[in-house]
Records
---
Amino acid sequence: MDTAFFLRWIATVTERVRAERDHLTDLDRAIGDADHGSNLDRGFTAVEEALVTTSPATPADVLTTTGTTLIRKVGGASGPLYGTLFRTLGRSIGDVAEVSPEALADAFADALGAIMKLGSAAEGDKTMIDALAPAVPALKVSFDAAAQAARDGARATTEMRARKGRASYLGERSVGHQDPGATSMAIVIDSLRAA
Amino acid sequence: MVGLVLISHSARLAEEAVALAVGIAGDDAPIRPAGGTDEGGLGTSLTKLENAVAEVDQGDGVVVLMDLGSAVLTARAFVEDRPDVVLADAPFIEGAISALVTAGTGATLEAVVAAAEEARTIGKLC
């Protein structure tokens, strides 16, 4: 996978976040502060511009620019979290022109660890980690398997009680709603298939 | 002198928290607010945090106090590349006052962080 692959991946994520913006915000209205879709859309729109301006030369450049822009532009909790995801992927892949599937899977494992540390969160807390964590081992199989695992993981958050973020203040009332962060994470992983 | 930054979801909350801390603890040590998003809404801004840290940084270290949620995550992402900036795990208001009093005496970075975090253990009704 080369620089063009990663640019297509981010472009697909940008397009799908834009298309799903209202859906993500509706999910966030149920248990959060109703800004997840608009925050992510603003962030990825800024990423789109940044990738044109900087014309990154390597896969790591694409990922680092994406992450840094998200941290700066999103404004909500998903900014530092997704920013850390992409920055860690970039750092882990390193300065190479071609990324093997194994190296990408390893980079995702590093990114999962970094997000868990940043958010002091674990699987089962009803967060984006519940979509990302099952996708990481599945990436060793195929993008299709990873996308399926992420979607299943996101769907499973519906029955969970939130232990992190604003939704955790709701306690039991957070049960019955799919987590918006896990839903957007499933979009990010699923977009690998289209890249 | 150790500097302090208060990062909050709300620009006005951060500003008023700074004013309260200065009113009680004095202005011997530098302290700045970093509240709200770049657009002025509720949320946090890495750019505002960076600017506030730069303003209070006198070379002896900077302590950041956060309110909650994205303030914590933004601050944590920021300090990844800044070992001279330390996050205090402390109540926002009480921690800020305690840290500012201590910083104003010319205390070390470690002592200021400890003062902020000590505020967690002080009860209000006992």
---
Amino acid sequence: MSLVRVSNGVTRPAAATFAVDGMEVSAPAGEPLATALAAAGLLGLRDSPRGGTPRGAFCHMGLCQECVVTVDGRIVQACLTPVRAGMQVGLGGTLR
Amino acid sequence: MIRPADCLVLGAGPAGTEAALAAAEAGLDVVLIDEQADAGGQGWRAPLSGLTMPRKGADAEAGDGLRARLAASGVDRRLGRRVWSVGGAFRLDAVGPDGAEAYEAPRLVAATGAHERVVPFPGWTLPGVIGLAGATVLLKAQAVLPGRRVVVAGAGPLLFAVAAGIIAKGGEVAAIVDMDGRLAWARRLPGLARRLDLLKEGLGWTWSILGARVPFLAGHGVRCAAGRSEVEAVIVGPVDADGAPIAGPERRFACDALAVGHGLVPGGEVPKILRAAHLYDRLRGGFIPELDPYGRTTIENLYACGDGTGIRGARPSAVAGRLAGLAAAHDAGRLDATAFTALAEPTLQALADYRPFADTVAGAMALKPAQVAAITPATVVCRCEDVSRAEIDAAVDAGAGDINQMKHFTRCGMGPCQGRMCGDVAAELVAQRRGVTRETVGYWTQRVPLRPVPFDTMIGSFDYADIPIPPPAPL
């Protein structure tokens, strides 16, 4: 389903709004994009190049490359990319 | 622009940061470089900027202490830098916030840490399946639960750390699935009891798990993760003491996330790329550089420390880091023999004191060959290139004798993760199929780039007029 942000006693930076394939998503500014996407229910980020099976963030520490997306047209690892207001995120079709 | 220094330290976890501090205290001009925005590595990671949590764990406090000492030191901190090349004696090339950067120094300390080993099973590529180490990052640095209902599975202490972390943050753990039986942990107690402070942390996790009445399946492994576009359930079944599946009742747990891991693998790309000698040590997680007691590799003025030199854990790694920093300062002529001995002797002793505990924890995280042997033929081993176990076996049968030949035959390990996620298991599969040792099968040939970097960032911006054109050869 999705990642869940713990609310009990946790304070976070103000939310920033960005677009994922044209759809509006908001998340605390500076949160890793992989977390923000999964918290919005966007767990599958791309399909594997050979088998075409769905993939999402796996290692959450910048190694596995499963969470690659495009941000403002450039290929990035979502787990290493902080959320910024206005960023244009594209899913799918990368690393094929 | 090249930033010259006396000593470069790559990796700002406990090992690298302590190495940098020790070398800088002895008077060296030290540059400490890391990909993350703050020091602490994966285990002692700082919470995200602007995020505050009510309770701090022991790791967060250890990390805060380390970061405070680093901030007060003379170490030049270059964090948020992605190092993609290492060469010469020694030069590092990185991509930083303002583009390409380079660093040069006659000494290099490699403290690049470890990454997770997940032994493949059907369904492990489904979104919602994440590593245990990744789950700790979500919990500790981001205050995020891996899902609404999480199955926590695998082997080693991270299993309990993650389960307890989810419970402490108010999440639901559907089940804890531990490959080890209760007997295996009972046998480990004497070793763990050698560090009462750390044993207490482990018992605290166990206590909170017992209190939450989570189904706990000792001696069980994941048979498969099921789901169409995301994980929806995990099916588990009994395994023997070696990790091989055995006949017995299987259970199905509905969930929306599976956090799974089977130990850690040393990520020693830097000493490998610089051609330092390595040896295979199953207890320590895989191939590790040959080191003297102070962390000197077989390459002059190249040092290595931390989990990248064999799995020990954060605290022993910090001690090993200090030793490597002292050795670098001594070799640079900044610490005379007397001063070096006076500082290094108690540090060596501190490292030796950690050994029984570190060996016990490493044993719980070591690869289980029988678990690898039981991977089914259709299971994807290399996630990047979708290479199955059957394809690896076929390549070996067709003559692929070592890990690099197998890679050439199949593309296994050739994808964007550069073989980090599958390497240890793939090498074990080749060794088992051929009936030879892991030494015979070897490790991936390491090449730059160490990390994927955009080509335009790497080369920077320039005009045609900036390109040096050599004079034409004389006729």
